[in-house]
Amino acid sequence: MALDFSIILRFQEALALGLWTTVKLTLICVVLGCSLGFFIGLARTSRSTLLRAVSSVYVEFFRGTPVLVQLFWIFFCLPLILGVELSNLTSGVIALTLYMGAITSETFRASLKSIGPEQLDACVALGLPRRVQVTNVILPQAVLRAIPTLLSNCVSLFKESALVSAVGMADLMFVGQNISNNTARPIEVLTVVALIYFLIAFPLTRAVTLVERRVLAKLAI
Amino acid sequence: MTMSFSAPLVKIQSLHKSYGPHIQVLKGLDIEMKPGERVVVIGPSGGGKSTLLRVMMGLEKIDSGSISFGGKPYISSESADRKTEIDTEVRRSIGMVFQHYTLFPHLSVIQNLILAPCKVRGESRASATKRAQALLERFGLGAKANAYPAQLSGGQKQRVAIARALMLDPKLMLFDEVTSALDPELVAEVEQVILQLAAQSMPMMIVTHDMWFAKNIASRVIFCAGGVVVEDGPPEQVLGAPKEERTRDFIDRVFHIRH
Ligand SMILES: Nc1ncnc2c1ncn2[C@@H]1O[C@H](COP(=O)(O)OP(=O)(O)OP(=O)(O)O)[C@@H](O)[C@H]1O
Ligand SMILES: [Mg+2]
Fold first, then answer.
1. Which of A158, A207, B201, B252 is spaced 20 to 30 Å from B194 by Cα?
2. CA of A135 to the centre of ligand 2 (A)
3. How much is the pLDDT for B196?
4. Cβ-based contacts of A221 with chain B (< 8 Å)
5. B148/A219 Cβ within 8 A
6. Which ligand sits closest to the CA of B209?
7. Could you cite one Gene Ontology molecular function of this protein (chain A) (predicted)?
8. How many domains does chain B have?
9. Above 50 in pLDDT, residue B150?
10. List of domains in chain A
11. CA angle B232-B47-B59, nearest 5°?
């Protein structure tokens, strides 16, 4: 069987549109998910038993169930419970944000825990008020330490986002699948789709190493 | 012995401190420190020297007793609920440098120095930076202002830590084994800086295992063991001709040979 990759050129625009949806969805969920994750991470290390319990249940639930099931639940069950129609994009954003929040909260929790008690001793010895301790000493160090893992979390999210094609969102995967079905050229189309995912994800995974070597080695944190 | 009539700078009264119900560390400590005195605290490992300094800095709760500074009680646990009361205003006049480097790794040297003056005292960045730069020059660190702590040697880090504490114009400095974690060849540069402060009659309390340094800096030496003050006197006495048996044993062991 002869392979003909030139058919991809006929669907350039459709693929580009699908990729844009994938990237947009990923970016929105990275921002929302990381913010949610930071506060959940704080809640999990908080002194309040209630906060700790609620956040743990959330994190463990989302880490312990397949993302596909979470997606289906939010696409099909949530509108029934809320009694409102949710657009595909809204449902996708909610589902992937909750997923991202759960995995990044673990990242933030680990980086918060890795800040030694001697840093707090120094804060007290310098008379820094609590607010300054958090915003100028703890938060920046926690974020810096979290960056490599957060980047990996973002790559995971980018790849997992392909699951939204299963609920009919026109992302890169969805478009690719449609083209593949209509042209009966799965090898060419799906190979190219895989390549596109790879070309975006791979530099990001390399960036993790770079950040670790350059920034974190310089600060030794 | 000469009597001084000046009021004590620090007065520690029957200080008790334990970690949990079973580890009693300080068992009724009484220390008086006069203005301008440089008190060196020596004693066996685990004797509670670090604990004493940490309590004075307000880093640890106490069981009972009180500490006053300049005649004003600032740490006490006398109330019925045994809560440790700390007057943070008074505490701000005390600076501390620790054994392990506690610089903020994400901030440059100069940012480490100006953080507290800007955030605590509301000093302008420009004025704090100017003071910080002058202090760094004085400690031979002028070229390191924009370096990050990880790019410094252990000795440089400790000098920066001392400079950082001095930015707040402390009236008393606490040093807890600040050279113990250093390579031997870096010890002198840090001790020089502390001797420089001594020459300007900065009151200080120093915990050290370095008997040469103790001899050179102390105006008074306190030997602490088992959570109490065993011997307290001028360096010639405590280090040279201790009166107490336990002090003598300890000094013999750390000096190896009797003087
Ligand atoms: N946070 C803590 N929790 C429980 N026990 C502690 C704690 N800090 C210190 N201790 C114990 O209290 C005792 C006194 O400790 P401290 O560090 O004050 O001694 P030290 O005189 O400074 O000893 P060194 O010369 O080894 O530094 C030790 O037995 C130590 O194990
Ligand atoms: Mg100690």
1. B252
2. 30
3. 93
4. 105-106, 150
5. yes
6. 1
7. transmembrane transporter activity
8. 1
9. yes
10. 7-219 (1.10.3720.10)
11. 100
